C-alpha cells in the first residue's frame, strides 16, 4: 500500500466509524424512546444497528452512558437554546423560559423524546441520574447563573417544577381543562409564576 | 338447617367475603406499588391472594378497575383530607394545600403508593385515566368548588402543576438543592404561588 492509499484508507475508516457511531446513536434514541430505559438493552440496540454489542460498549460504555449520549443528541436543540433564553433582560426571563419549554412540548417531534426521558427518569434510578445531570447542570444551572441571588439554584428548580408539573398534567396525564386549554392562555398564567420564582422577593 | 342457623351462616359468609375482598385489595395495592401497572396482572394478584382470578374479576372487574379500587384505598386518607384543606378561610388555602401535599410526600408510608401511582400514570394510558378520574374529580374539583371564579378548574390544575412538579423534582428525580432543602423553606416559597394560582388576579 502506498503512503497516499494508506492515508486515504485511514480517512475512510474514520468516516465509517463516525457513521457507525451515529447509526448506533440514532437506533439507541429510537429504542429508548419506544421502550423506555428498563426494557432497552445494549444487545437490542446493537442488533437493530447491525453491529456487535462490543462495538456499542466500545463507542459509548455502559447502557447508562449510551442513554446519556442518546438523550444529549435528542436534546441538543433544547439544551443549547437556553443561552438565548437566559440572555436578555432579566425581567423577561420568565416568559422566555416558559415559551421555550411549551414550544418543545407543543412540537410532536421534540415531545416524543422528552416523554421518553421523563418516563425513563420516573421509572429508573440510572435514567433519573442522567436526567439530573443533563437538566440540572445544563439547563437549570445556566438559568441560575444569570440570577444574582444566593439561592439562585433553588429558585431555578422551583420555576422548573412549575413547568415540569404543567407538562405532566397537560401532556402526559392530560387532565382537563388544562390539556385542551389554549397554550397562550396557559403561558400567560405560568410565565409570571416562573418569573416570580426566579427574580421575586 | 334452622332459620337462625341459616341467618348465622349467611352472616359468616358475608364477613368472609368482605375479608377476601380486603385481602385481594391489599395484595393488589402491594403488587401495583412494587411492579407498576404494566407488570402487574390480575392472575398474579389472584395467586398472591390465594384465590382464583375469576374471584378478582367478580369483585372488581377489569385490571383497570382493580387498579382504581387499590388506589382509592391507598389514597383514602389523602383524598378525604381535602375537605379540611379546602375549607376554612380562602386566603389560607394555598398554604393548607401545599402543607397537605408535602405532608403526604414527606411520610414514607404514603409516599410509596403515591410514587407507584405516579409511575404507572406516566407509563400507561389506563393508569393515567385512573389518575385523572381520582385526582381531578376528587381532589382538584373539590378545591375548585371553593373558588368563586369562572376559571376555577384551570386555576386548581395550575396550582396542582406546581405541586406535582415539586414532587417530581424533589422526591422522584431528586434534583439538588431542592431534594435536600428544608421542607419548611420549600413550603414557604411554594404556598404563595399555589395561593396566587387559586385566588390571584
TrEMBL record, chains A, B:
Gene3D superfamilies for the chain: Homeodomain-like, Tetracycline Repressor, domain 2
Feature: DNA-binding region: 41-60
InterPro entries, alphabetized: Homeodomain-like_sf, HTH-type_TetR-like_transc_reg, HTH_TetR, Tet_transcr_reg_TetR-rel_C_sf, TetR_C_16
DNA-binding recorded as keyword: yes
Keywords in alphabetical order: DNA-binding
Top-level taxon: Bacteria
Pfam family, one: TetR_C_16
Keyword 4Fe-4S part of the UniProt annotation: no
Boundaries of every HTH tetR-type domain copy: 18-78
PANTHER family recorded: HTH-TYPE TRANSCRIPTIONAL REGULATOR RUTR, TRANSCRIPTIONAL REGULATORY PROTEIN
The protein, known as: TetR family transcriptional regulator
Native source species: Streptomyces cylindrosporus
Amino acid at each position: 500500500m502506498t503512503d497516499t492509499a494508506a492515508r486515504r484508507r485511514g480517512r475512510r475508516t474514520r468516516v465509517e466509524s463516525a457513521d457507525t457511531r451515529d447509526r448506533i446513536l440514532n437506533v439507541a434514541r429510537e429504542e429508548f424512546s419506544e421502550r423506555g430505559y428498563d426494557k432497552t438493552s445494549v444487545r437490542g440496540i446493537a442488533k437493530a444497528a447491525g453491529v456487535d454489542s462490543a462495538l456499542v460498549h466500545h463507542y459509548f460504555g455502559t447502557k447508562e452512558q449510551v442513554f446519556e449520549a442518546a438523550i444529549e443528541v435528542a436534546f441538543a436543540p433544547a439544551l443549547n437554546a437556553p443561552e438565548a433564553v437566559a440572555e436578555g433582560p432579566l425581567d423577561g426571563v420568565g416568559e422566555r423560559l416558559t415559551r421555550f419549554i411549551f414550544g418543545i412540548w407543543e412540537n410532536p417531534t421534540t415531545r416524543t423524546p422528552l416523554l421518553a426521558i421523563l418516563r425513563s427518569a420516573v421509572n429508573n434510578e440510572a435514567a433519573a441520574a442522567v436526567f439530573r445531570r443533563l437538566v440540572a447542570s445544563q439547563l437549570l444551572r445556566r438559568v441560575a447563573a444569570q440570577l444574582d441571588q444566593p439561592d439562585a439554584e433553588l429558585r431555578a428548580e422551583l420555576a422548573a417544577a412549575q413547568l415540569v408539573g404543567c407538562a405532566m398534567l397537560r401532556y402526559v396525564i392530560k387532565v382537563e381543562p388544562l390539556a385542551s386549554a389554549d397554550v397562550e392562555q396557559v403561558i400567560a398564567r405560568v410565565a409570571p409564576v416562573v418569573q416570580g420564582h426566579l427574580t421575586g422577593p
